[in-house]
Amino acid sequence: MEAALKSLSIVLDPSHFMFLCAGVLVGLSIGILPGLGGIVGMSILLPIIYGMDPHSAFALLIGMVAVIPTSDTFPSVMMGIPGSSASQATIMDGYPLAKKGEAARALGAAFTASLIGGLFGAAVLTLIIPIARPIVLAFGSPELFMLALLGMSMVGVLSGNKPGKGVLAAGIGLMIGALGDAPAVPEYRYTLGIEYLMDGVPLVIVGLGLFAFPEIFDLLIKGRSISEVATLGKGWLDGVKDAIHHKLIILRCSIIGVIVGFLPGLGGSVVDWIAYGHIIQTTRDREDFGKGDIRGVLAPESANNAKEGGGLIPTLLFGIPGSGSMAVFLGGLLILGIQPGPAMVTEHVDLLYTAIWSLALANVFGAGLCIFLSKPITRLTIIPFAYLAPFMILIITLASYQASRGWGDLIALLVMGILGWVMKQYGWPRPAALIGYVLSDNIETYLFISVQRYGISWMTRVGVIILALIIIASLALGIFYQRKKTPKARSESRDYATQASQR
Amino acid sequence: MQHRLLSVRLVFAAIMVLAFGYGIYEAFSYAYLAKIFPLYVSLVMFVLACINLAQEIGISWKEVQESGVGFVDLESDWDIPMTTVIGRFCTFLAILLFLYASIWLVGYSISITIFLVLFYRFLTKTTWGVALVAGFAGLGFISLISRLMVIDWPSGIIQNWIQLPWPLG
Amino acid sequence: MRKTCMLLGMAFFLVSSLGLAPPAQGVDFSGKTIQWIIPFKVGGGSDVWARLYAPFFKKYLPGNPTVAVKNMPGAGSITGGNYFHTKARGDGLTVFGSSGSTSFPYLLGVSAVKYDFTKYHIVFASPTGGAAYIKPGLGVDSVKDLKGFKTKLNYASQGATSLDIIPLLAFEMLGLDVKGVFGYKGRGAGRVAFEQGETSIDYQTTTAFIKNVRPLVKQGLAVPLMSWGILDEKGSVVRDPVEPDLPSFPEAYEMVHGKKPSGPAWQAWKAFFVAGFGVQKAMWLPEKTPEDIVMAYRTAAAKILKDQEFKKVIEKSLGGYQQLVGKEARMAFNEVLSVSPESKKWLINWLKERYDVTVK
């Protein structure tokens, strides 16, 4: 307890605090620009932390990484373009709200959810440290495989009434994910002899290609502004009220966020989809999802902030990154001369608490700043899109190019973009493709390791059986709620599914 | 009747079938551990893709029979006909391809600046002044990122002949 | 709104015109920027290594140039290596940082490799070490007990052509029946797998071993076996000074088999050990670099090693290993370059027979 308070005073010390603010500002800028995410932020800041004292460095890095899931809501809501890989699901309902002229409301709700989610993540991080080790150790490769399957089961919910196309889209995602080097052997798959493809297609490019590119094109084709209504409707206070009204949803999704972040292997890019899918699965009146249901914004936004807190656990306590940005953060630890692992809890407990406080405080500032900025930025939705489009294209090509710094990136972006656009027009659910892509490596790797190591008996492990039951339960819930609706609601939900698959 | 069936929708569904077929075919040549996953996924997907294609052809056929107007896309919420949409898409795609070609020739920095200027002037229809400011703002931005992240934007053929000053080189 | 946009646009315009100011010309490297190509992602082991050295090179190179790390990940570091080989000019402004993963494809003769270490000038090299340990309760308290040890063991591996060649071959040479479970994402994941009971034998870099495995040993959850060793000036593999209680691999071999290791397996192991650990990371200048620039770099590197501040860095982040400069580095790396074709063939054959892996 006193270690915690001591750390708080360290963090509030002006010299460290300054770094926290710097980190928040950097994170804010990176989140707002579509396509750039935590990895880019870390890459920019890593050279700077050389020679810094660890507390300042932590304040800087964690301040940055904590705010990105908050500020990445801006492009997702306002343009339907994911701000970072953790914010894709926000597009589904945030963007329709912006089109109705309710961007400020969506943002207000999102920031409140982000704030609560982030604080929740920090709180869980504090409480769970003593028992984290046994929990992480309990999840072996078979259990991680089942978790990846659980993620895949979301495909069903997210495909509405087109399960066939949903599964196919997921299949496309799985194959794109399989492209490149195989996890266990030095075999390069489907590379068509192109050296660039030997590493597979980077996540940034898949995300931007599938979601950003079609959106930009469609807006250009329509030739209007983003908001289809001339004036801006409800303001951000209404969004905050919405968030408070649905606090249970925020709580549930924060829990999901922390768990997904905390278990190595699922990665940050599916957490928002899992939260979004879960909310749909467990609600009776789902007609508005995909058309601007505020709950569809609250769910992913609370989850993606909470996951940052969760992600620090395996990173700091085990040296296994919880996500891509955590992998770079590990490099930062090495530069500072800190070895992650069980030693963190004994030798570096003060640093641990610095991390937690930085996380909490950064979330507060980040949310506050974002709310402050939301008014001027939402005005952008009224301008004709032609003013924004060229800069969007610049940022997207730039963000893609920094993925592996080669021509391949630009071409891959174009190919994925065309694919994404066609999928959008003809009703192939893109979220399913993205989930397939992200989980592809995990599914293959963990299944292999399980079979290699345990033969068939991996299926009889306790953890595996429990997770299998959870998967079946979640699928059943989805079908159950679907059936319970009146026929009128059912036909309306077909519309939602159509809309959803077009986003 | 025949050529009305050949809509983008059907072509795409057919491409899916071919893609998964290729997936199966290629997977056979891989080492054992690398083969299993893509092979089985492709197999299942191939079957599903064929079913999907059959369904799509069935729906198209029915519509062509009923309305005789060719394919009416029930799904998009466009208030303009699909052919216009595709047409405009191809126009913008061509613009992008021109951008890429120019990147290949003169490098990213020059191309994106010119792109911004031209786009603002001719598509957004602003004055030359605004367009130029936009172009240089873009150039400034990518220079900043280039410095921060130690990243070199793609250079074009022209950079092999002439040494241009940073950031145009 | 319009006005704000105009103002922002003007601001960027000013920034860009500031950036267009050309760098100052000078003697030696003053005002210049050195690009240190690292064929790995930001935050990876080699990236950190370069970033630790970079400010010290700035301090000791004549003219105090800025040293910027340029990440060029791809194809397991082959992309970066090829880029260095084809594009780097001999003006001393581009250097290359290689790691074990860069040397291995080169040694194995992977066709995509265009780079050639025999042509470059080495500036300095950083060794590292590894230590192996085993599950308790198997009747093994030290390496001696491995003689005639028959129980099947599991080892978490990234892949048969990764750095794991070294432990896998070592275990086999000791006569152990070790199954490589492939697909793990790194040694961190490997250690977790060991703690979970998924694997029964593992190794870690000595730094990680000291921090994370020694506590396990204290709790009775792991039994240390041996370290790989380090290379001494005569080119022999001797005990690792960072873990002086652990026998080196050649010593372990002798304890189990009663004679010193020899033969094609040993030759292959030694070559790959040097590439993967003995001289794991190295800085290179391109072929056409004139002698005076090479000397300037080597002198700077020697000065860095004497720097008091840097000695702390070595302790904290580089495992405490003696870094090699200039001639010593060249001689050590020659152990890698002079591996006989028979040994290479033996290894490639071993990979095929044992793991069904073909090197392309």
What does this molecule look like?
The complex is a heterotrimer of chains A (503), B (169) and C (360). Chain A contains 22 helices and two strands. With 503 residues, chain A is mainly α. Chain A has a two-stranded antiparallel sheet with strand order 1-2. Chain A is globular. Chain B is mainly alpha-helical and 169 residues long. Chain B has two domains: 8-67; 100-161, no CATH class. With 360 residues, chain C is an alpha/beta fold. Chain C has two domains: 29-127 and 279-341, Bordetella uptake gene, domain 1 (D-Maltodextrin-Binding Protein, domain 2, 3-Layer(aba) Sandwich), CATH 3.40.190.150; 130-275, D-Maltodextrin-Binding Protein, domain 2, CATH 3.40.190. Chain C is built from 13 helices and 13 strands. In chain C, 50% of the residues are buried. Chains A and B meet through α3, α9, α10, α18 and α19 of A and α2, α3, α4, α5 and α6 of B.
The pLDDT mean of chain B sits at: 81
Proportion of residues in β-strands of chain B: under 5%
Shape by Cα distribution of chain A: globular
Average pLDDT metric of chain A: 83
How many separate helices of chain A?
22
Oligomeric composition of the shown chains: heterotrimer
Helix percentage range of chain A: over 70%
Secondary structure layout:
The complex is a heterotrimer of chains A (503), B (169) and C (360).
Chain A: H1 2-12, H2 14-32, H3 38-45, H4 54-71, H5 73-79, H6 90-99, H7 103-138, H8 141-158, H9 163-178, E1 180-181, E2 188-189, H10 203-222, H11 236-245, H12 247-262, H13 271-281, H14 295-318, H15 324-335, H16 343-346, H17 349-378, H18 389-404, H19 407-425, H20 430-454, H21 462-483, H22 487-502
Antiparallel strand pairs in A: 1-2
Chain B: H1 2-5, H2 8-27, H3 32-67, H4 82-106, H5 108-123, H6 128-149, H7 158-161
Helix pairs in contact in B: 2-3, 4-5, 5-6
Chain C: H1 2-19, E1 33-38, H2 45-60, E2 66-71, H3 78-87, E3 94-98, H4 100-108, E4 121-126, E5 130-134, E6 152-157, H5 165-173, E7 177-182, H6 187-196, E8 201-205, H7 206-218, E9 223-227, E10 230-231, E11 237-238, H8 249-257, H9 264-278, E12 281-285, H10 291-306, H11 308-317, E13 324-325, H12 326-337, H13 341-355
Parallel strand pairs in C: 1-2, 1-3, 6-7
Antiparallel strand pairs in C: 3-12, 4-12, 4-13, 5-8, 5-9, 10-11
Keywords:
heterotrimer; A: 503 residues; mainly alpha; two-stranded antiparallel sheet; 22 helices; 2 strands; 73% helix; C: 360 residues; alpha/beta; D-Maltodextrin-Binding Protein, domain 2; 2 domains; six-stranded mixed β-sheet; 13 helices; 13 strands
